[in-house]
Amino acid sequence: MPCLRSVLRATPVLFGMVSPLAAHAQPTTPFSFAAPSLADPAASALCIDGECQPVITDTTYLGRPAFRLTDGKSEAVIVPSLGRVMRYGKVGGPNLLWNAPAKQDFKSGWKNYGGDKTWLSPQSDWGVLSDKTWPPDTSFDGSPHQAEVITGGKLKLVSGTSKTSGIRVERVMSFNAAGEFEIQQSAIKTSGTPVRVGLWSVSQSVPAQAVFALTSPDSPYRNGYFHFDTKEKQQPAFVENGVFRLEPKSEGGGQKFGIDAPVAALASVQDGVAWVQKSAKPDGQYPDGVEKHGFPVEVYVNGSPGAYYVELEMLGPLVNMVKGQKMTHTVRWSLHALPSHDLSDPATQNAIAALLQ
Questions:
Q1: What are phi and psi of 355, to 5 degrees?
Q2: Domain assignment of residue 108, given as a range
Q3: Which of the chain's termini has less CB crowding within 10 Å, N or C?
Q4: pTM of the prediction?
Q5: 116 Cβ contact list (under 8 Å, min separation 6)
Q6: Are strands 51-54 and 44-48 parallel, antiparallel or unpaired?
Q7: In what order do the strands lie in the sheet with 210-214?
Q8: What's 284's domain CATH number?
């Protein structure tokens, strides 16, 4: 895997609000690099066999100004005006993130463009954390974010500040030396009374063959997972050898599953490739579950044929936040070739289980 090395200067590129942001240093590793020109917003360059390219560049996506980040093998495209990651996949490969149809009318009031974003949990408290129980707080989802390229080939997005909770969300995104796409998401409370919240990343993905997670041997939930929407038509979900497996279908309305997994990890598998999302799982109370059996991972299937997608959701522990406090929850994405496309193949099953460890 090629390594990345910082150059000494990055040019900030801003959208939305304008205010200075501090640059962050990136540890260096030996490799061959060419410094971009001062007019280039890239903070690093990636060189393989004498050919170099910036790891972060300006681009356009869906007619909007955007940034492309890459490690030469995988790529991500971020659109600051939407505050979302809108593309992720292999370089030249299909987009694993679902995007809304171009003529989406947003009748629900939620401007759901698709892609990946950060919310605050638990959803049951949204009436306290914002002025409505639905849609999501527009400070974080639906309004333009400030963007800045910072040292080390990183892109920083900053949301507006919620008038209700007094919290803004910041995300620093980059590819690390292991080839993982990292999203370091933080909540910063700048005003208001204390609130108990957690960070919640929501990736709307193109539906795959199946989504996997580990289950806890001491889970209080039947079969090791909790099905939120029992009145809806069941999506095929089962557990075998301690691994939860959901096979999404374009039917049954919206359905959600919570897993009190011992490891915060999800794997979405399609065409012999596993898209893995992982995060640390510090001690604490996680959202939506009972007592110490909250959910660090959740999966939501929007089974509507007109907007068919699967949400891969990674949740951090709940924290009592007071003015001046900051909390961070980092999610890492990676792509892995599996032994076969056959999910009944024991070697493929073992490989998926190993990736979730």
A1: -65, -30
A2: 97-356
A3: C
A4: 0.86
A5: 84, 85, 88, 97, 183, 201, 202, 203, 204
A6: antiparallel
A7: 146-150, 154-158, 167-175, 181-189, 326-337, 273-279, 265-270, 210-214, 243-246, 237-240
A8: 2.70.98
